[in-house]
Automatic annotation (TrEMBL):
The chain crosses the membrane at residues 90-108, 120-139, 166-186, 192-209. Residues 226-299 form the Cation efflux protein cytoplasmic domain. PANTHER family: MITOCHONDRIAL METAL TRANSPORTER 1-RELATED (PTHR43840). This is Cation diffusion facilitator family transporter. It comes from the Bacteria.
Length: 299
């Protein structure tokens, strides 16, 4: 069941928190692109170069997330009476597409390196990967926590970018270790690690894409939302029961369509008053619900 907070953050406040976490990730990724790219070239490790490429797409996708969050936080206007919330899942979908594109490029270059003889990676690249794993896991935990707190698919997608880096860096660490232990003839282990990393990247892209696409298609949120809204409505004096209840998520907010059953002998004015009371009760208890369309049914 959704949590209730007496002082829940507003749509704009949640968007701002998401934007700050995204900007921190962008700054970290700029540093990591330079570090991993340089170490990969100097240390003859394509797995590290692939890591740098993936971090480069992280910068682009995080920028998309930041823009999506800014747009989603805008107030409704004449052209967008329901607000701009769908900019947030759209940003998440674009992140997923960017990840797949990066995986395709890394896989193509990895195969080329496997077919082309090259040097063993330098041992120091393992230390670089160790630092990368520590930084990225810290960023993942921080951003994912914020994504859960503000209930943002785009911020969670940004967090999964960091977790994807942890996975691919760990895979690269194993590949380079095998190459160094095996010695001459095992140079390609590093490149095979990059190919394995592509599988994880595509998996994470799907993990990001699926819920964002569902939100764009007005997929119903977890059933607890509808059950909770029904319970809040039925607690309002004058409400006999509820019938249909449809809920959809748009960015940071939820919209509900609810059929409420009342005594058929009451006046239109009394029915209207019950409608207002139902809306107020739901929006007060669940601030994330932006609007409730209540239809009165006679009993």
């Amino acid at each position: 069941m959704p949590d209730s907070h007496s002082a829940a953050p507003t749509n704009r406040e949640r968007a701002e928190r998401g934007q700050v976490s995204t900007l921190v990730g962008i700054g970290a990724n700029i540093v990591l692109v330079l570090g991993k790219g340089t170490a990969g070239v100097v240390g003859h490790s394509y797995a590290l170069i692939a890591e740098a490429i993936e971090s480069g797409t992280d910068i682009l996708s995080s920028g998309i997330v930041w823009l999506g969050l800014r747009t989603a936080a805008r107030e409704p206007d004449e052209n967008h009476p329901y607000g701009h919330g769908k900019a947030e899942p759209l940003a998440a979908i674009m992140v997923a597409v960017a990840l797949v594109g990066a995986a395709g490029y890394i896989a193509t270059e990895g195969i080329r390196h496997i077919l082309t003889p090259h040097q063993l990676p330098a041992p120091f690249t393992l230390a670089v990967l160790g630092v990368v794993i520590a930084i990225k896991e810290t960023l993942y935990r921080r951003v994912h926590k914020i994504g859960q707190e503000v209930d943002s698919g785009a911020v969670k997608a940004d967090a999964w970018h960091h977790r994807a880096d942890v996975i691919t860096s760990s895979t690269a660490f194993v590949g380079i270790s095998i190459a160094l232990i095996g010695g001459k003839g095992w140079e390609a282990a590093d490149d095979w690690a990059a190919l394995v990393a592509c599988v994880f990247i595509v998996y994470n892209a799907y993990h990001i894409f699926r819920p964002a696409f569902g939100e764009i298609m007005d997929e119903a949120p977890p059933r607890a939302w509808a059950d909770d809204i029904r319970a809040l409505a039925q607690a309002v004096p004058g409400v006999v029961t509820t019938e249909k209840c449809f809920v959809r998520k748009m960015g940071f907010e939820f919209f509900a369509d609810l059929h409420v059953v009342v005594d058929g002998s009451i006046s239109v004015r009394e029915g209207h008053a019950i409608t207002g009371a139902v809306k107020a009760a739901i929006k007060q208890a669940r601030p994330a619900v932006y609007n409730v369309l209540v239809h009165i049914e006679p009993f």
